[in-house]
């Protein structure tokens, strides 16, 4: 459930980034698919290029610039990402094994290639660990998901069909393929492997796997060219029949277009029998299933899962934590034995029981190793305020031994929503994933990654006492993501905007009596290898995190909204002359997201070209407490715009940037800010680039999958009540007035637009309308449309062509 959306380009899990967190989607020796600069991509075939300046073919300048900059971009693109990792058998003897699931963009295939890299870990005499890496990675073709069993003796591989075929489940042992099952579409469609609904879970005795997959297709009417309708028929190509569309069904919007309802299934891995889980209301979309601990009574086994319901329609769910959801428990199959029938004596044996009725949001259910309690994260602030993402809380339910499922189980608050925190104090929980096994050896301390101002840090949380410790170094501005735990050992990844990711091994060391500390050592590895050129370029860069004081603090501002926000400043270590390097201001979307101090391939590429970067986490960003975040809804287009302008003035005053060489780049809400800035501060920017920007809320509201977002960000929390599918003229006037299009007449900055034609979140019409209007008034504009891209525009070729054009566009106007 990534909070670091595609346009928070420093995000840890996005495709444009390098280090990743485990649940999210996301070379080694010389890359065989390397494209040399003499093998130009057929760029005009990849994207439809609407040049709104009067040229039809690629102009000469572009041609030269592409040739000049594409080679370096390819070198950055080739850096791999770790998606997941597992450790095995470390409790026995001095050797254990690690397995890393790695991905790397493949430009020619326009896909991310996934591979597996293994290592043997040998404990040395001094208690340190030596990693011995397998000589090569193994490519994993067609693998949609993989999950080792709890004992590590079996590996489940899921292969989803490309089109209509069956879904394939394979069970591997250490030596061979043990079983293979083909699950027909009549059972279910593809297994969900997204970051939202995905849930695949082995039961404790490793006989069954529970998972989430698309429910089977509903029956569709069949027509023919004789009588018209063919009753109860199935289409038969030879008989002049065809399948109708049937009734349209709502889906969950952006990236879920055409996906059927996520439903729960269990496969028996001895027989291959698949059963749909019974007792779940048809209207619930389910995800994140886990097995409840075995009961002390009878043979009942329960599953716990997250259920999302909706009222009259489904809104977009991606990046939107404000969709109400609850944890449910339900009896697992099989249902057919006599013993089961005897046990089914109350309705809770048949129907899923809502375990979290008293809270508006509950997800990431995790049982403690002893099965005594269930922990979950809640985004109740987000649901209750309407902001699409906000400060999380963490909760615990004590789990009954006899699996009596009480709807009114007491929910203990482990980490409350933090409203505001003094500098240096825990600013609140912001987590986008929790490991399947997040526990340290005491069984009640979990390790979790959370955003803390502009960094992601690792926390240990004692879920019984509520004690929270920051376990990654407090004196560093690097960002960290969690790979896996092994007893009291942690594998993690750490990086900064100017340091490629590094695998870290963490262990607790005793300091003085009663004082323990986490110590982190580097794990040399082949995964994050990058070219010598990239190494040398980024070694000449440096970064810092700047505190920016709020301008115009007034009585009406909450304490949290009056505290400083942050900006990450990346620049060359050495000043080549008196003049400053040109500056690119980088703005994340959301708006309730964050740009992290982690390595980002595209941003490191831009800084390597000689730009300083000012990456602004304006108020409203995640990681700074709930009051600062909630200060933005209702004030978009003014408070956020002013925060960015203040940050720019700050670096100019410090002599870090020259006022005459500033460009701005942002996507989505960051594109809203980009286009607002060139309208509200027309003298300030010499060039701009906007990716799927929100330019006209009055147009967006009628076509986006999240029209409620337009209301909440425009009106503030009261926008939740004001929301209607039929906006009034008054609403539309306000939406227009708060949009960049209202300032269009003042714009003169040359602007590049990068637009995904399949974007359901910020439909292409808003960017195109604005670009055409700029063109009409004679502003330099270039538009590139990626016909098959959604909001994230993160397919390898689109990402590549986007950043190549951003670089050439800025070079044209800034240098
Ligand atoms: C909630 C949301 O999707 N808002 C969009 C307008 C936006 O800014 N999207 C972010 C998440 C993005 O960067 O894609």
Automatic annotation (TrEMBL):
Its EC top class is hydrolase
Q: Which Gene3D superfamilies match?
A: alpha/beta hydrolase (3.40.50.1820), TolB, C-terminal domain (2.120.10.30)
The segment(s) forming the Peptidase S9 prolyl oligopeptidase catalytic domain are: 598-814
PROSITE patterns, alphabetically?
A: PRO_ENDOPEP_SER
For the keyword Cytoplasm, the answer is yes
Q: Which reaction(s) are listed as its catalytic activity?
A: Cleavage of an N-acetyl or N-formyl amino acid from the N-terminus of a polypeptide
What EC number(s) is this enzyme filed under? 3.4.19.1
Q: Name one GO cellular component term.
A: cytoplasm
Q: What's in the keyword line of the UniProt record? A: Acetylation, Cytoplasm, Hydrolase
In which compartments does the protein localize?
A: Cytoplasm
GO function terms (MF aspect): omega peptidase activity
**Domain Acylamino-acid-releasing enzyme N-terminal residue range list:** 57-535
Q: Relate the assembly described in the record.
A: Homotetramer.
Q: Which family would the database say this protein is a member of? A: Belongs to the peptidase S9C family.
Tell me the PANTHER family matching this sequence: ACYLAMINO-ACID-RELEASING ENZYME, SERINE PEPTIDASE S9 FAMILY MEMBER
Provide the function of this protein: This enzyme catalyzes the hydrolysis of the N-terminal peptide bond of an N-acetylated peptide to generate an N-acetylated amino acid and a peptide with a free N-terminus. It preferentially cleaves off Ac-Ala, Ac-Met and Ac-Ser. Also, involved in the degradation of oxidized and glycated proteins.
Question: What is the recorded name of this protein?
Answer: Acylamino-acid-releasing enzyme
Q: Write down the species.
A: Flemingia macrophylla
């Amino acid at each position: 459930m990534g909070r670091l959306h595609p346009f928070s380009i420093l995000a840890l899990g996005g495709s444009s980034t390098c280090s990743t967190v485990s649940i999210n989607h996301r070379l080694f020796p010389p890359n065989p698919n390397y494209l040399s600069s003499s093998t130009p991509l057929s760029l005009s075939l990849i994207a439809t290029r609407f040049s709104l300046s009067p040229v039809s073919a690629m102009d000469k300048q572009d041609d030269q610039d592409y040739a000049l900059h594409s080679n370096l971009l390819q070198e950055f693109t080739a850096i791999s990402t770790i998606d997941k990792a597992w450790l095995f058998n470390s409790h026995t003897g001095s050797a254990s094994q690690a397995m890393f699931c790695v991905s790397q963009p493949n430009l020619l295939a326009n896909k991310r290639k996934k591979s597996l890299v293994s290592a043997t870990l040998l404990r040395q005499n001094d208690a340190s660990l030596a990693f011995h890496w397998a000589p090569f990675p193994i490519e994993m073709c067609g693998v949609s998901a993989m999950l080792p069993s709890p004992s590590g003796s079996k590996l489940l591989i899921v292969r989803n069909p490309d089109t209509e075929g069956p879904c394939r489940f394979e069970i591997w042992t250490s030596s061979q393929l043990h079983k293979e099952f083909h699950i027909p579409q009549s059972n279910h469609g593809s297994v969900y492997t997204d970051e939202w609904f995905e849930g695949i879970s082995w039961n404790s005795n490793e006989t069954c796997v529970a998972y989430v997959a698309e429910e089977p297709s509903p029956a569709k009417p069949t027509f023919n060219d004789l009588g018209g309708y063919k009753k109860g028929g199935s289409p038969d190509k030879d008989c002049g029949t065809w399948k109708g569309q049937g009734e349209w069904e709502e889906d969950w919007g952006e990236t879920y277009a055409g996906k059927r309802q996520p439903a729960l299934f269990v496969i028996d891995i001895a027989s291959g029998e698949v059963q749909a889980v019974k007792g779940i209301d048809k209207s619930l979309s389910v995800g994140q299933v886990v097995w409840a601990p075995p009961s002390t009574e009878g043979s009942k086994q329960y599953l716990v899962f997250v259920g999302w319901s909706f009222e009259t329609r489904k809104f977009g769910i991606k990046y939107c934590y404000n969709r109400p959801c609850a944890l449910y428990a339900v009896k697992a199959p099989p249902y057919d034995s006599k013993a089961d029938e005897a046990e089914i004596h109350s309705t809770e044996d048949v129907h899923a029981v809502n375990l979290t009725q008293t809270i508006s949001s509950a997800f990431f259910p995790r049982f403690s190793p002893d099965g005594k309690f269930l922990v979950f994260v809640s985004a109740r602030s987000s649901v209750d305020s309407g902001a699409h993402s906000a400060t999380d809380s963490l909760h615990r339910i004590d789990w009954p031994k006899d699996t009596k499922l009480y709807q009114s189980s007491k929910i203990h608050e482990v980490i409350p929503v933090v409203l505001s925190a003094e500098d240096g104090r825990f600013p609140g929980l912001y987590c986008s994933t929790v490991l399947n096994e997040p526990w340290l050896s005491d069984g009640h301390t979990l390790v979790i990654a959370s955003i803390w101002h502009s960094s992601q840090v690792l926390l240990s949380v004692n879920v019984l006492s509520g004690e929270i410790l920051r376990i990654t170094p407090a004196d560093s501005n690097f960002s960290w993501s969690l790979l896996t735990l092994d007893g009291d050992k942690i594998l993690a990844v750490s990086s900064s905007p100017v340091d490629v990711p590094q695998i870290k091994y963490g262990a607790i060391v005793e300091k003085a009596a009663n004082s323990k500390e986490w110590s982190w050592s580097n794990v040399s590895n082949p995964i994050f290898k990058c070219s010598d050129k990239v190494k040398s370029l980024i070694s000449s860069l440096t970064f810092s995190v700047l505190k920016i004081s709020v301008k115009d603090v007034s009585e009406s501002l909450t304490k949290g909204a009056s505290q400083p926000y942050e900006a990450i400043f990346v620049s060359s270590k050495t000043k080549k002359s008196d003049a400053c390097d040109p500056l690119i201001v980088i703005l994340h979307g959301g708006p309730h997201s964050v740009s992290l101090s982690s390595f980002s391939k595209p941003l490191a590429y831009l800084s390597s070209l000689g730009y300083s970067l000012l990456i602004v986490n304006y108020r409203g960003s995640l990681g700074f407490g709930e009051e600062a975040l909630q200060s933005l809804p209702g004030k978009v287009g003014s408070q956020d715009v002013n925060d960015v302008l203040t940050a720019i003035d700050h670096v100019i005053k410090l002599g870090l940037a020259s006022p005459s060489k500033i460009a701005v780049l942002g996507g989505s809400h960051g594109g809203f800010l980009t286009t607002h800035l060139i309208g509200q501060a027309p003298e300030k920017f010499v060039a701009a680039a906007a990716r799927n920007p929100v330019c006209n809320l009055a147009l967006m509201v009628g076509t986006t999958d999240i029209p409620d977002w337009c209301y909440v960000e425009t009106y503030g929390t009261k926008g939740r009540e004001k929301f209607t599918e039929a906006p009034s003229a008054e609403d539309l006037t306000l939406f227009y007035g708060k949009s960049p299009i209202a300032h269009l007449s003042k714009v003169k900055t040359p602007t590049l637009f990068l637009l995904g034609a399949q974007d359901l979140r910020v439909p292409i019409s808003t960017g195109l309308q604005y670009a055409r209007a700029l063109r009409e008034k004679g502003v330099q504009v270039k538009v590139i449309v990626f016909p098959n891209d959604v909001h994230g525009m993160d397919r390898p070729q689109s990402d590549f062509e986007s950043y190549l054009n951003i670089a050439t566009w800025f070079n044209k106007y800034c240098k």
